[in-house]
Amino acid sequence: MSVLHVLFTVGDASYVVPAADVVQMESYEGVTPVPGVAPYVAGVVQIRGQVMPVVDLRVRFGLPAVSRGLGTRIVVVNRSQRAVGLLVDSAREVVRIEPSSFEPPPPVVVEQARGFVDAIASVNKRLVMRLDFDQVVGRDVDDREVSHGQQG
Amino acid sequence: MTDGIDVREFLGGYLAESEELLGSANTNLLALDQALRKGDNHPRAVRELFRALHTIKGISAMIGAEPVVDIAHEMESVLKVADQTGARLPIPAIDVLLRGLRAIEERVAQLSRDEPLEVPRSLLAELASLRVGPSATSGAAELDVPADLAPRLSPGEREQLAQGVRDGSRLLRVDFVPSAENVAAGTTITTVRQRLTALGELVKVVPLSRPAASGQATILFSLLLLTARSDAEVAAEAQLDASRITVLGASVPLPATQPAPSEDLVQGPDPTRSSHVRVDIRRLDEALERLSALVVVQARLQALAAEGGRELQQAVAEGSRRLRDLRNAVMRARMVPASDLIERAPLLVRGLAATTGKKVEVQTEATSVELDKAVADRLFPVLVHLLRNAVDHAIEPPEERRRAGKPESGTIRVACAASSDAFLELVISDDGRGIDRARVAARAGVEVPQTDDKLLELLVRPGFSTLDVATSLSGRGFGMDIVLRGVTELGGELELETELGRGTTFTLRVPLSITIVDVLTFRCADRMFVVPVRSVERLVEAESLPTMAPPGPSSGAVRLSADGDRALPLYDLAALIGVPRVAPARPQVIIVKRGDERFGFEVDRMVGRKEVVMRPVIDPLVQAPGVAGTADLGDGKPTLVLDLLGLVRGGVQARAARSEVVS
Predict the structure, then answer these.
(1) How far apart are CA B300 and CA B345, in angstroms?
(2) FRET pair for B240, CA 20 to 30 Å: which of A33, B156, B182, B282?
(3) Which residue(s) pair with B524 in the sheet?
(4) pTM score of the predicted model
(5) What are the residue ranges of helices labelled H in B86-168?
(6) Between B620, B630, B651, which is nearest A139 by CB?
(7) How many CA atoms lie within 13 A of B53 on its CB side?
(8) In this structure, is the dihedral angle defined by the CA atoms of residues B246, B251, B257 and B262, taken in order, positive or negative?
(9) Span B52-71, pLDDT tens digits
């Protein structure tokens, strides 16, 4: 049984998250920045009346900032009663992936990706990385202190 | 208005009380209407309606609102005759009574706006002509009522008892003699009344005086209860001896009696109200506000206790738990049943349908879910708007429905239920003509929307209307933007499902409780922020304050100023929240007080004052000192609600943390 996944890009890499976890995809119309939070938290948005944080995946993955364009999307993920928007460079496709085709990422990727990627798969001869949502939105004490330092 | 008494002083209480009484009157009038349409009578609804009107008359007389007194008096007279004779009111009378309630509502609203009240002469005449005589169809109630009680019951009450028995209830007489032992055991007439009320329909409490064995007269209360429970159950639950309970029944006609004095109606039991206290919602808001302050103190205490011993930490943790329980208890005190909200729908629709010539039936369905009064108050206008649209635009005129093979009478269904622990789902559906996508698209000048979501996006565009000629009822047409704003400001969402020719369903999901905050809006570094009014002591022009920069590295963010003869630390808010400052033309300073200390915060420009729904920041990713929550100012975007003192503390902590790292 293949499973639907939402495919999006950050930098030159492609990522997937299970479509069942994705509430919707919104075009980017700005966020309300919140002072004193981790630098990868772009701010909050209100989508269908619900206020949620937006994680800028470029910053989260340590990529250089780029100007946000027409392709920029907020992928709203709802998982374990938490709704978080993921700011990505583009999100256009929904793909079917056999669960058995996911493989653990090579050790060097695990190390470099700080646990953000939990599996990789090949879709139509293209390599995609499955995002570990809980790692990506997990509270990270180090990042918070860095952020306070910048604020002070 | 009465001379010498400042009526305005009582007006707040009057408005709150009359609103509640009008709500009760509406509910009972509706129940009566439904019973009459089925060919039944509903004596209890008549009595409750009478009571509500009688009280409205009384309180209106106290503040000198004569026109309200007149209307209530005429309506009361109609009901009194019906109650005493046990007669059924003719159905057209319900419409006149309904207009009477509307007329009272209008005048109460006028009072709140301090406008003069009109006397509705034709309505009063119409009401006067309604007083019905004894009805031949009412029939003698076949009920065995003991001779000591019979003279104390009005015909309406007897009809109510007989109706109850006909409907399958058992009629019990429960005798209660107050005594010193009873009181010691915590049993009084009030507790007995409350316990019996929980077991069925308590129709009447009759105090009787009777000679005791010692020759001294004692008082005895006879309570008449319609119930489905057994004698033993009633005795056990009411904590009374089973020998005190007598079953009344059989088919002995009532002895002929003179009608009971009308005052009996007023003094009769109203056990549902006896266990309630009417509280101005602002008092609860105040309690919550004070609690919030305590929560902040508790958080500080917890931080301090982290360095203390284990026992101290446990005690503080216990304190936090208790505080949370207390907060929940106060929140619960603000809750009202959701059914109160939707049970007003049928009467509203009746009023609306009457002016259009359409036939509409309303079905309501409510679970026992409760929601915050503030949410209910904000949701009500949205409900009215949607019902109005349904009656005005969705339901077709009878002949059009007939041609479409539908029943002549349209149906609007209003249902609500808890969709989760924190959300209420309100569904308003009709079996009308549905929304014509092509027509909406043509009017908006866009492609035909393929999904209901896209269609809703078009409908909620400000001022969008599907009607070329606005009707008197809906004014400027659809007004869905107002509905959407009402829902999103509550932090809720709106969904649409529509099928051409079949009907439309709107689903609203709103939080069960919200926090309303009075805030000041201002701009700083090109962004909008709000701050709760209660935290602000005053506002001053920055130019009017003398300032100097203290030595040290953070001199950009804090300067020293003076407030009178006291030092005032003056923060540059833009620097505090870490954004580049855009030099404003005339900066202003928000002065905040904590204890004896005062702090100033320089901002670009104050914008205004507003009441907003504050949403707490729940996700840990965006929890930060100084951010109390977010609010939607009407643009659909979250605006930060700042806790300025928290921002200072957060900044200080962050600096302390950094200097530790450095050293």
Answers:
(1) 48
(2) B156
(3) B527
(4) 0.53
(5) 91-112, 121-128, 155-166
(6) B620
(7) 31
(8) positive
(9) 898 888 788 777 788 898 89
